[in-house]
């Protein structure tokens, strides 16, 4: 039986960790998505191909009592054939809105990690431009550059080990991971395209001792019904290693929840998971 083009595209989204942004562009499953907040698009640099690096900065309306904590939103790997950047997907626009409505600043940007080949250094170059801009411009915009956290989704988790490196232009103080890839999943299309050295750099297991040593708070939001083969098995191994290293890790499991549950599942549990992640990311 032949698959229609629409059905095939939907399956590709699921497979590559972009299920939350399927063809109908679903919203974040949270009641605050319609709150009126300030959104500003800022060009902050340039990619290797000459195209601009842009951020979408979402902040609360009205005067703030103090500097705003900053939450960096990091999407998963996107196939080159998907032309719409993650920053225009409704779920990420809504994440910015809900974070701003909760009293913080959200920074959304597009990176080039890709899939199935992982372009880690290309993505890190773009990340560093964002962090350098925050370091230079954040204070003047009322942002607290000493309270910068990250919320990463799916394959965005592959960037997490690099976030704790001293060479980053700005320190990341907390990391929340939604249904994350905690390394290259065995048997995945990325495995044969990834060198052992690169795989090690993207492995959260290999970074467990460093995370524990830095006392970096980590929150993992696990999709109990994740349909991506091997992802949860690797995730569970990683959690075991993190606990063995005595890292400051919290784990929230959503029983039966699919990959991309923040945009695919309407439930109290999902709303609570989003709220918990934002509270965690903006905690002093």
State the name of the first-level CATH class. Answer: Alpha Beta
Shape: globular
CATH superfamily: Alpha/Beta hydrolase fold, catalytic domain
Give the count of helical stretches. Answer: 9
Under CATH, the topology is which?
A: Rossmann fold
**Distance between the ends:** 55 Å
Q: Helical amount among residues, as a percent range?
A: 25-40%
- Radius of gyration, in angstroms, nearest whole number: 18 Å
**Run of helices and strands:** HEEEHEHEHEHHEHEHH
The CATH architecture can be given as 3-Layer(aba) Sandwich
Number of strands: 8
β-strand amount: 15-25%
* Secondary structural class: alpha/beta
Residue-averaged pLDDT: 92
Keywords: Hydrolase
Protein name: Alpha/beta hydrolase
Secondary structure layout plus pairing:
Elements (H helix, E strand, L loop, with lengths): L4 H11 L22 E9 L5 E8 L8 E7 L15 H12 L3 E5 L10 H18 L5 E11 L6 H4 L10 E5 L17 H6 L6 H7 L3 E6 L7 H14 L4 E6 L6 H4 L3 H14 L3
Parallel strand pairs: 3-4, 3-5, 5-6, 6-7, 7-8
Antiparallel strand pairs: 1-2, 2-4
Keywords: Hydrolase
Protein name: Alpha/beta hydrolase
Brief synopsis:
It comes from Taklimakanibacter albus. By secondary structure, the chain is α/β, with parallel strands linked by helices.
Characterise the protein shown here:
It is globular, with a radius of gyration of 18 Å. The protein has an eight-stranded mixed beta sheet with strand order 1-2-4-3-5-6-7-8, sandwiched between helices. The protein is 32% helix and 20% strand. It has 284 residues and is an alpha/beta fold. Strand 5 (143-153), helix 4 and strand 6 form a beta-alpha-beta unit. It has a single domain, classed as Rossmann fold (3-Layer(aba) Sandwich), CATH 3.40.50.1820.
């Amino acid at each position: 039986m032949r698959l229609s083009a629409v059905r095939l595209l939907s399956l590709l989204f699921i497979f590559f960790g972009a299920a939350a942004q399927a063809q109908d562009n679903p919203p974040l499953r949270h009641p605050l998505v319609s709150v009126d907040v300030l959104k500003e698009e800022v060009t902050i640099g340039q990619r290797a191909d000459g195209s601009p690096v842009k951020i979408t900065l979402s902040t609360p309306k009205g005067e703030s009592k103090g500097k705003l904590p900053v939450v960096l939103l990091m999407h998963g790997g996107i196939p080159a054939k998907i032309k719409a950047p993650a920053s225009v997907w409704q779920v990420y626009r809504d994440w910015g809105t809900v974070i701003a409505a909760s009293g913080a600043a959200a920074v959304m940007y597009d990176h080039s990690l890709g899939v199935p080949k992982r372009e880690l250094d290309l993505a890190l170059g773009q990340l560093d431009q964002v962090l350098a801009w925050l370091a230079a411009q954040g204070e003047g915009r009322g942002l607290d550059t000493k309270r910068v956290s990250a919320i990463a989704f799916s394959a965005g988790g592959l960037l997490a080990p690099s976030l704790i490196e001293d060479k980053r232009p700005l320190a990341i103080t907390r990391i929340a991971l939604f249904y994350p890839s905690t390394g290259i999943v065995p048997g995945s299309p990325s495995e044969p395209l990834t060198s052992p050295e690169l795989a090690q750099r993207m492995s959260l297991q290999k970074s467990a001792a460093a995370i524990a040593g830095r006392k970096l708070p980590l929150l993992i939001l696990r999709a109990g019904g994740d349909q991506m083969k091997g992802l949860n098995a690797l995730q569970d191994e990683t959690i075991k290693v993190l606990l063995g290293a005595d890292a400051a890790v919290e784990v929230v499991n959503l029983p039966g929840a699919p990959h991309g549950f923040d945009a695919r599942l309407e439930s109290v549990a999902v709303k609570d998971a989003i709220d918990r992640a934002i509270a965690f990311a903006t905690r002093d």
